[in-house]
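New to this. Look over this protein:
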Amino acid sequence: MANEKILLIGACGQIGAELTLALRSIYGDAQVVAADIKDPAPEIKEGGPFVHLNVLDAVGYAEILATHNITQIYNLAAMLSATGERYPLKAWDLNMNGLLNTLELSLIHGIHKVYWPSSIAVFGPTTPRIRTPQVTVMEPDTIYGISKQAGERLCEWYYQKKKVDVRSIRYPGIISYKTEPGGGTTDYAVDIYFQAKRAGKYTCFLEAGTKLPMMYMPDAIRATIELMEAPADSLTVRSSYNLDAMSFSPEEVAKSIQQELPSFAIDYAPDFRQQIANSWPESIDDSVARKDWGWQHRFDLPSMTKDMLANVQ
């Protein structure tokens, strides 16, 4: 483990920032090189090596792999669903060519393992919405979802044809108190906690009954690391694993907040993100992940709400 040298791209993002810190606590600060196009928070920059990297710059990317003797790559650089609908060509370029650079350079530089996240956005209006199976109809209707679906096929191809040990999770909505929302359709479930503490009320951009799969950040980080540490021969999925913890609607999360903050109020002003949410599953069947690498979630809605409200600044 000590010999591994990890490059984590997207270290300034919602998941990337927390994953960087978690990996440094396991592998050692010097063994995890954080990378992003943006300037990082002090705890990322001062806690270990940091490099500026545009994942679309294959030459700069290759130089970093060689200079730092990288053995594992986590590529989390992506444009998310709501932002991607505003800038579709930029989203496609970043999401697809960033992945292609990662897979090609992994091949050239003999990278041991690659992690690339997918999303529940790969599913679409024709997908079964309740306990969505691991293998099912996938007809996404957002640029983000289309790019993630294409990315899953690329990952599987590079594993089957080129033996690149690439691993992936289809993240549900991820909720964290450490970083504010970053342009996703499930981001209401982060913002609602911030606004509960700041203003005591929240206007939701989704309708009251819109149920979506969600996960608390500590579970998402643990799942990612557990998948990357699982023996290669135990993994039966090389596209991307379904992952689940809980499903809830804005109304249900508001009620859980009211258990802690009785005066909290919510109202609703649905926007274009409602249409995106309507095309996604309500709940996920992640039995394959549970069988293959022993995945178990730890947080449900009440325990997450308590922890969020205790920690949101």
